[in-house]
Amino acid sequence: xxxxxxxxxxxxxxxxxxxxxxxxxxxxxxxxxxxxxxxxxxxxxxxxxxxxxxxxxxxxxxxxxxxxxxxxxxxxxxxxxxxxxxxxxxxxxxxxxxxxxxxxxxxxxxxxxxxxxxxxxxxxxxxxxxxxxxxxxxxxxxxxxxxxxxxxxxxxxxxxxxxxxxxxxxxxxxxxxxxxxxxxxxxxxxxxxxxxxxxxxxxxxxxxxxxxxxxxxxxxxxxxxxxxxxxxxxxxxxxxxxxxxxxxxxxxxxxxxxxxxxxxxxxxxxxxxxxxxxxxxxxxxxxxxxxxxxxxxxxxxxxxxxxxxxxxxxxxxxxxxxxxxxxxxxxxxx
Amino acid sequence: xxxxxxxxxxxxxxxxxxxxxxxxxxxxxxxxxxxxxxxxxxxxxxxxxxxxxxxxxxxxxxxxxxxxxxxxxxxxxxxxxxxxxxxxxxxxxxxxxxxxxxxxxxxxxxxxxxxxxxxxxxxxxxxxxxxxxxxxxxxxxxxxxxxxxxxxxxxxxxxxxxxxxxxxxxxxxxxxxxxxxxxxxxxxxxxxxxxxxxxxxxxxxxxxxxxxxxxxxxxxxxxxxxxxxxxxxxxxxxxxxxxxxxxxxxxxxxxxxxxxxxx
Amino acid sequence: xxxxxxxxxxxxxxxxxxxxxxxxxxxxxxxxxxxxxxxxxxxxxxxxxxxxxxxxxxxxxxxxxxxxxxxxxxxxxxxxxxxxxxxxxxxxxxxxxxxxxxxxxxxxxxxxxxxxxxxxxxxxxxxxxxxxxxxxxxxxxxxxxxxxxxxxxxxxxxxxxxxxxxxxxxxxxxxxxxxxxxxxxxxxxxxxxxxxxxxxxxxxxxxxxxxxxxxxxxxxxxxxxxxxxxxxxxxxxxxxxxxxxxxxxxxxxxxxxxxxxxxxxxxxxxxx
Lengths: 334, 263, 272
What we know:
The complex is a heterotrimer of chains A (334), B (263) and C (272). Chain A is of the alpha/beta class and 334 residues long. Chain A has helices at residues 19-28, 61-68, 90-95, 113-123, 128-142, 157-169, 187-204, 215-221, 239-246, 264-269, 298-308, 321-331, and strands at 2-15, 31-45, 50-54, 76-81, 97-101, 175-179, 207-211, 224-229, 232-238, 249-256, 278-283, 286-292, 311-317. Chain A is built from 12 helices and 13 strands. In chain A, the strands form 3 sheets. A 6-stranded mixed sheet of chain A has the order 5-6-7-3-8-9, with helices on both faces. In chain A, helix 5 runs antiparallel to helix 6. Chain A is globular and about 70 Å long. The mean pLDDT of chain A is 84. Chain B is mainly α. Chain B contains 13 helices and no strands. Chain B has helices at 2-21, 23-50, 59-79, 82-90, 97-100, 106-113, 120-137, 143-169, 171-174, 178-186, 200-209, 217-225, 229-261. Chain B is globular and about 60 Å long. Chain C is mainly alpha-helical and 272 residues long. Chain C is built from 13 helices and 2 strands; from the N terminus they run H-H-E-E-H-H-H-H-H-H-H-H-H-H-H. In chain C, strand 1 and strand 2 form a beta hairpin. In chain C, helix 2 (23-51) packs antiparallel against helix 3 (61-78), helix 3 (61-78) runs antiparallel to helix 7 (115-140) and helix 8 runs parallel beside helix 13 (235-270). Chain C is globular and about 65 Å long. The relative contact order of chain C is 0.11. Chains in contact: A-B, A-C, B-C.
């Protein structure tokens, strides 16, 4: 449904020296440098999928999204939705998409929320029947009733975000682009929004492309992940595959019979592991052992733990997505 | 087309509704525009206290030119005020992207979004001044003069809009062009007074380059003396059309450059 | 003194750097103001031609040109953005950031604000004044520039700036009480333009109006420094007016301090 083929975007960057003198120099003799913000990115998204789009800051994610939403024209390569090109058929293309920018709102600032939806109805040519049905659906899923008559400038961040999502879905777009939708929101609101997105995806088969830094967003929502680093696609696959391929760290948590008698040092001394490969944390009487399952198998670690501690409660943890991503952001994919 | 009108009407009513929230601010705004113009007129009155005529024109004629020039200025100010914001911060703050994700012309969207009703201050002032001075200024109220008056006002407003549009569109390339809009817009100050008092260079500039002289002086010369309608009114129409065409091209090419370079 | 400068200079430097980034815009800004000057110039030229004589209420054409342009450049030196600085920071809450810094609030605002006039002085004032003086020298046939008047003018201009600064600070704090300052801001700008003599030299106004206006701080913003530059004051008038300016600086500084105290109280009551 969405096809991205060898997408490339170059920017001219002006080089500026530091300080007062540097600024003046930059005025008289500017220096340019060509940077490839997006370099040969290709991927496909089938209809109805929720795709997680991740990568470190400045990796080029928003640039790809901007090209997919028709805001930016690619230097080379192409991206299409159902065969339509964002630049060539802009007006038709944007009718099929909905966009939510996490930091900027699309709503009319001074007016009650309801007015914004009224204008959008006209702009997107939604007929009365469809509008009524859609509004009641969105109302239910995003709980807008409480503030639909309030001026947008008085809304809290959570309310504004829900309102923005509703605004982007009013015209039943085939694809929804969400750029950091849960940023700055509290746990409850985040949960509501995630549920709403899932609900919408289930009932309308809306394809969702979600850019986020929130690990829970990724784990709870995304079927698939595409990771961008330094403008290049470095991973394309499911979350499970990612865990299997890159997840080396495992966890064993236990509560010792006698917390006095447990000593990290002697525990560690019995194993030939150091530094990152083996860490022990204590939290409220519970011990958490993190270990590199490449260096020692989970089975062996478990036996060692059982043999060397009087454990009351013990559990083994799965590969941790957050840790995987953190590692990949830091050192890149090998 | 009908759809665009409907959308415009909706946005207009939104603007007026929003206005109700800031009633006091609107009154103060309208009042200050009026005072600004009143000071200008007061200045003229003080001068005419001492001298009989200015550049060959009587007090009433000067007031007529001044008042007339306020009408297209006020109209343009009222309807296309958002263009200033495009130049000042909309592009720079990345807020322009939202217009590109909607299935209507971004230009239409940007302009329709803001209705600056306190420009009524300028409009009212202009109309009042025109009414009180027209008779003594030598204006003849024939039916075709009234028609030409309306035509002149419309095309003169287009000159204002075109100049704002062209300079605002520069923001697509240089991020912020608000000051540039300001400079070009300010040359309209020359339009309030008879072009004959300026040196040849300036007269040329405000006639053919930044043609604000056509938003006040030239059409008024026709209305007051009946001279040279082809140049005074016809010239206005031609130059206004040309300028609008050029401005639209600058906007379109600027938009393409923006889509290529991003924010 | 050195410590004070070192402490506050970063504010100025950061402000200058960011304005240099939009230097093109600054040039255009001065250009647009200059345009207004030229319109007035031609207008006055036509007035003088029509009036037949070479004199209009005590000013001749040279005087008029000088008055117009020096008023214009003085406006650059005395312009203060303090009201916007404060109003914006109140609106988006960043005023708490400024309060958290271990420096005096008003000093930090002052040093940020003064960057504007400093840059204007170098980039606009010096070249424009030079041009005006050259024009004067050429048309009159002798160098009219008077170093004493100029020095006194600079002192007067500094006081004018301080008056403008404190006025704007008070105005900026209004943001605590109303949400939208735009209308008031416009009103203030326009009224100020008239009251400070920028549009019509105060000397041209009817006596009663002139006398009232000369005492208000607005005249100190533009009219007084310009008259000093032109050497139009007798010694006693000079002393009197400069003392008047000084008095206004003191009054407004005090006023802004009071406003600040009450605003801070309101801030801590309301929260961030």
